[in-house]
Amino acid sequence: MMRIACPNCGLRDEREYAYGGEAHLDRPELDCDDQAWEEYLFLRANPKGEHAERWVHVHGCGVWFNLIRHTETHEVVAVYVMGVARP
Amino acid sequence: MSRYSAFALLRNWLGGNTDWDPVWRSPEPASSYDVIIIGAGGHGLATAYHLAKHYRPGRIAVIDKGWLGGGNTGRNTTIVRSDYFYKESADFYDHSLRLYASLSQELNFNIMYSARGILNLAHSRHEVDFQRRIVNAMQLNGIDAELLGREEVLKFCPVLNGDPNARFPIYGAMRQKRGGTVRHDAVAWGYARAADALGVDILQNTEVTGFRRDISGGVQGVETSKGFIGATKVGIATAGHSSVVAQMAGFRLPVASYGLQAFVSEPVKPVLHTVIGSAVIGSYCSQSDKGGIVCGGGIDPYPSFAQRGSAATMEKVLAGIVQLVPTFSSLRLLRQWAGIVDYTADSSPIIDRSPVPGIYLNVGWGGGGFKAIPAGGEAFAHLIAKDEPHPLTTAFGLQRFRDGALIDEAAAAGIEH
Ligand SMILES: Cc1cc2nc3c(=O)[nH]c(=O)nc-3n(C[C@H](O)[C@H](O)[C@H](O)COP(=O)(O)OP(=O)(O)OC[C@H]3O[C@@H](n4cnc5c(N)ncnc54)[C@H](O)[C@@H]3O)c2cc1C
Ligand SMILES: [Zn+2]
Questions:
Q1: Span A64-86, pLDDT tens digits
Q2: pLDDT (tens digit, 9 = 90+) per residue, B283-296?
Q3: Distance between CA atoms of B234 and B45, rounded to whole angstroms?
Q4: Which residues in chain B have Cβ-Cβ distances shorter than 8 Å to A1?
Q5: Which listed site, A28, A81, B64, B304, has its alpha carbon 20 to 30 Å from B192?
Q6: List of chain A residues whose C-beta atoms are within 8 Å of the C-beta of residue B350
Q7: Is B297 close to ligand 1, i.e. is its CB under 6 Å away?
Q8: How many CB atoms lie within 10 A of CB B7?
Q9: Going from the N-terminus, what domains does chain B have, and what CATH number goes with each?
Q10: Which member of A1, A19, A34 has the closest CB to residue B301?
Q11: Which ligand has an atom closest to residue B297 CA?
């Protein structure tokens, strides 16, 4: 069982959370070209290694936050609030 | 390659089973090949077989970092079917199912295709309506799907939970009779043996670590744990690791990789003669010839390259199995495992040229590419040999993500495997 530290509630089991996709994807202007829109919607880093991603403490306080997690070891390397740059 | 037959069995039995030929060779890598396929799963091996048999492009190698069939091809729940919603998928997957039906003869290797039927349950009026709609679409596409009422379902498969007050009562089901199971390892071994006999080098325990490209950007070969191996055409069929290999070639893919688990119980007497599953409950199972109940369900809910699986998902899937067949609650699990599957946004595969000249893609199969191996190999061989898509896979290109022409099977049929 993976355990994740919510910025508000501390260390809780993975089943209290929901994964919300890769973090730091900036939505392009709506009049962008198809390539920029494709990159935004579909192209992902999907690394075997450290991944910056969004999570929500859905069965807890409800907060959205970012974390950096290793996709092979599942080690959570950093937890940080939304809106700040990747540490 | 000496042929397998009743006579060969008898002859080898009389000889004390001491002179069976090795099923394939274990060659040293040559310095270069005309075509290299990365990934000795079902798709890579079937591709090499079709290339060698029909297109003869020269020397062919299939390279795998582990043992052949050790990826998802040897880890799946062995279900084959063609009950897809969209015409593009129906045509492609049905071709694959038909190839499976004659594959034992084609490869001279028993792949144990068992057309035991696959039953998807409906648990509400609304789901029955939905199934009516998709079965109608399937029949228009020429797929033999049919609807069963509640009584028919319980008569056909009496172990199912027939309690009308169950949390998920049975209202009916859709069934594809030609759906069923195929021995997964046999598919990898059968294609490997047949490809090897046609001169394909299968290089196991050889990890691809990078690509070498010329000044114009075209591919010259691959760097591996056993040194550089040249090739002007390279096919990527690495399933969950598609984006990892793509990154080595300098491009991104529209995929995300997740763990997908399977479970098998201790063996019991025959009790389940078909494949049962429920999209709402999110679990499915069948009984193997050895007697084990083979269970599967949804993917783990976050990206992963750890081939072990989340305990939370395991609990959810198995709770679903017990809901489907309450008597299975007394079974003990024998094994649990996971494979890494690469999902596209529409749960349809990518069989296409890549952005790099000379590199081709057969990826994005998610949790459902086992049933597609015979047709996937045929189509990928065509693509590599002719540098243009096979007519059955023109819709499964990369361009669909730019054009928005998705073939959204996840939304349409709502079935994961
Ligand atoms: C638990 C589970 C249940 C499933 N159930 C079903 C089912 O019931 N029906 C169905 O149709 N599908 C099912 N699937 C999906 C199906 O198994 C896959 O889609 C299919 O096997 C993919 O085949 P492949 O040949 O593309 O990949 P794989 O068989 O995974 O082969 C890819 C190979 O690439 C190799 N590789 C990766 N990186 C490198 C590298 N850098 N260098 C060299 N080699 C590399 C790997 O070692 C691996 O052997 C299931 C999958 C799982 C995990
Ligand atoms: Zn919280």
A1: 999 999 999 999 999 999 999 99
A2: 999 999 999 999 99
A3: 14
A4: 310-312
A5: B304
A6: none
A7: no
A8: 9
A9: 30-78+184-254+346-412 (3.50.50.60), 115-179+257-342 (3.30.9.10)
A10: A19
A11: 1
